[in-house]
Amino acid sequence: MIFEVWAPTVTAVELDVPGGRRPMSPGQDGWWSAEVPEAGHGTRYGFVLDGDGPYPDPRSHWQPEGIFGPSAVYDHAHFTWTDHGWKGRDLRGSVIYELHIGTFTTEGTFEAAAEKLQHLTELGVDLVEIMPVAPVPGSRNWGYDGVDLYAVNHTYGGPDGLKTLVDACHQAGLGVILDVVYNHLGPSGNFLHPFGPYFSGFAGSYWGEAVNLDGPGSDVVRRYFIDNALQWLRDYHVDGLRLDAVHALHDRRATHLLAELSDEVDVLSCSVGRPLTLIAESDLNDPRMVRSRDADGYGMTAQWNDDVHHALHTAVSGEHHGYYADFAGLSALAKVLTSGVMHDGGHSSFRDRAHGRSFAGVPGHRLVACLQNHDQIGNRPMGDRLPIPELKLGAGLLLTSPFTPMLFMGEEWGARAPFLFFSDHADPELRDSEGGRRQREFEGFGYAWEAPDPSEEETFLRSKLDWSELKDEEHWSLLCWYRDLTALRRALPELSDPRLDRVRVDHDPDDRWLVMRRGSLAVSVNFSPESLTLPIPLGVVLLASDENMSETPEGARLPGQSLVIHRPET
After folding, report:
1. Phi (first) and psi of residue 18, to 5 degrees
2. Per the residue annotation, which of 244, 326, 390, 412 is the catalytic one?
3. Kindly report the CA angle at 569 between 568 and 570, in degrees rounded to 5?
4. Is there a contact between 60 and 150 (Cβ–Cβ < 8 Å)?
5. CA 447 from centroid of its chain's CA atoms
6. Would residue 307 show up in a list of annotated catalytic residues for this protein?
7. Is 281 tagged catalytic?
8. Any residues with CB less than 8 A from the CB of 240 and at least 6 apart, and which?
9. Tell me: the pLDDT tens digits for 141-172?
């Protein structure tokens, strides 16, 4: 076997393998190599740079002893796939389900998650989005402190475990999207610095040093991230990637990293014969993110849309602090349902500046919208979720909207477990300062920050879903509501129509009602706690959150906090 590593700034590299260290030979452009015929699947190794180390391989596929242990050779041919008939899953018309492996089940493993797939298929989702699985410090983490980006967290089940879950998802008819982080690496166990100019030398975001995408030596660094993305799609059979916080990718090149990545993923899609999806998390409200490359865009399949979340959350909860301030009132919800975004060039009070551009012409399926996700729950001090009455209204609008809807694990039955921020740093200084760092990150968000210590194991354990809640009538009833909504979305073409210019919305900010029209369908919502009559006939009821709907000569009579999907024309 031939070992290779990029280390352009050192004078000597040794390969540390069982039996001793072996000198590596320098090659072109800073690459070093050594051949070890007896090495194979499972062989432990590391690299020694000018006498320092050994360090894990920057492209390590396997860290069986964690981020501070040696790398291990991983042969992808070692795993036997059974998904040979899988043709992929197109994002258009799909429903996404986001989950965190460590808290989705009591066991917190890929194997245990695979045992819950029947629940997801019965729920009616199409794509499972898995939060980051790169190795992290300790035994628990959201995943955004990952290092060794080519490897898979051994506490979840390692590379074979991830493949087993993906294989099982495909057998169940579910596509898989993997959340990846390319804008920074975690603060502990990041050994890329000694190898070369992987970082730009300045703080690219709150979370850490910016990666070097456009400075000296950046050709290989860009390749590092692009090859990583292709690995998941090709070698792990993943159907798409969610790219974390791409607004923190600092790239001044004529061709942005995202456009370059999109181009290569399209080529791979042709090779593997199935659609491959790229979803960007972007805070920019810039339609270039999802426009095609020939239209001078970045070519992302879709992007997360926080504006829809903020408008839905404010409408159902009444909160209007921090970044929710601009979304107070039903006019904001009416705007995002018909325009895609709230901030399209106007003033953002939270940012104290103009923000965003118009998304006119962008189809709704390119905007991934949610009522809850890991950020919007976990970024609250107590990680609290919406209560069931608010979930009913919000889900009714989300799953009948023109966007690609995404659910967060446990939302579908109104899980009581919070989703708190948790970590497990080995470094005492990082461990002790994590709570204060988290508090500083959210200054100005309008919260009185009193959060559990993220380093305590109990914080993590409290965040695990309690599947026994499904035995309770209240939770089971909500699950049935979500199932009915996904089934209706699949059955009625009007509900999956992504054309935003075909959506019409009427609302009354004083009486707090809203009617969204999708073709001949209407989704009527009474956000008020009091019953009221909407100036629209009830007609044929397709699905209602409350059976006490009625029709009067003045229109549809809706109980307080209720939603009905109906055809007003009889």
Report:
1. -55, 130
2. 244
3. 110
4. yes
5. 24
6. no
7. yes
8. 91, 127, 175, 176, 177, 178, 233, 276, 277, 278, 279, 301
9. 999 999 999 999 999 999 999 999 999 999 99
